Amino acid sequence: MSKNFKEKDPESDIVISSRVRMARNIESVSFPHYLDKEEAKNVIDRVYDTITKGHLCIQNEFKLIKMDEIDLIERSNYVEKHLISPALAKNVSGGAFLINNEETISIMINEEDHIRIQCLYPGLQLERCFDMADKIDDLLEEGIVYAFDEQLGYLACCPTNIGTGVRTSVMLHLPALSLTGYINGVISTAGKIGLAVRGIFGEGTEYLGDIYQISNQITLGMSEEEIINNLKDVSLQIIQNERIAWERLLDNKGIELEDRVFRSYGTLKNARLLSSKEAMQLISDVKLGVNLKLIDGISTERLNELITMIQPGYLQKHFKSQLTGVERDIKRAQLVRENILQ
Predict the structure, then answer these.
(1) pTM, rounded to two decimals
(2) How many structural domains compose the chain?
(3) DSSP string of 104-153?
(4) Structural domain boundaries enclosing 287
C-alpha cells in the first residue's frame, strides 16, 4: 500500500492526502498527442536518462513503467492509487511513468504534456510536496530545456496550465458538512476564489464517500508560493468548519448519528455483497464514527487504505483474476470483512 495512506499528520483525520503536480514540456518537441510511437519513445528515454544518469541512488529508487508493458488491471490500480491519471493509463502507444519505491513520487511521461511531476503525501503537507517536486524539476532541468516564454512562463498543451504549471490539490473527507448540507456552500465559494472541487478521481467523477478533491484552477499570474498558501488557507478553514459541524451533529442528532455509524460498521463487518459506491459511503460513516470517538479499535489510516482496496483494479490485482461486476461485489465484501478490524 502507498505510503500516502500510512503516515500520520495533524490534519490526517480529515485530510487524506496532499498533492503537487508540475506540467512541463520539452523545447522544440511537439506535444504528446502529435507524437508518433518512435518520437514518444525518444521522450521517455530522454526523461529516464536525465533522471538516472549519474545519480545511482536515484536510479535504484525509481523504476520506469511503460503503459504497453502492463495490463488494464495494473493500469487501473495505479489510477486508483492516484499515481497516474486516467489519460496516461489510456496512452498505451507512448505513455510511461517513473515511480519511486515508496509511491510518493511519480513522473508521468507523454500524458497531456511531456512531463508531469507529481508528489503525493498524507495529510496537509503541500509545502513538503512542492519541495520534493521542485527538486525533481531542478534535476530534470540539468539535462532538458523546457518550453518557456518570458511573459507566459512554462508552456503547456492546455492554456489553463501555462505559467507556473503548478497544480495543487488536497483530498478531504467531509461527512459532517455533507450531512448538514453546508458542503454546497463550500463548493460554491471555492469556485468564486479560483478553486475547483471534484470527486475522488478528479474531473468529472462523483463525490463518493464524502470525499472531495480541492485544487487551484489558476496557474498564470500567481507564484508557486501564492498558489500553495491560498489552497492551504482555504483547506484549514474547511477543516475548521468540518470540526464545528461534528459538534453540531453530536448536539442536535446524537442518537441518529450513532445509529448511522454503527449500522454502517455492522454492514462492513458482515456484508456478503458490496458495491463500490455503497462501500465508500459505509467507510465514510465509520471514519466519522472513529473521528468522533464513537468507535474504538480501528484507525483512520486503515480506513483510508480500504478506500483503495475496494476499487475494481485493486480487487482484480489482489485476487489475480478478471472479475465480473457481481464477483467484484462479493470479493469486495470479503476483503472488507477480512481487513476492517486489522
Answers:
(1) 0.91
(2) 1
(3) SEEEEESSSSSEEEEEEEESS-HHHHHHHHHHHHHHHHTT-PBPEETTTE
(4) 249-339
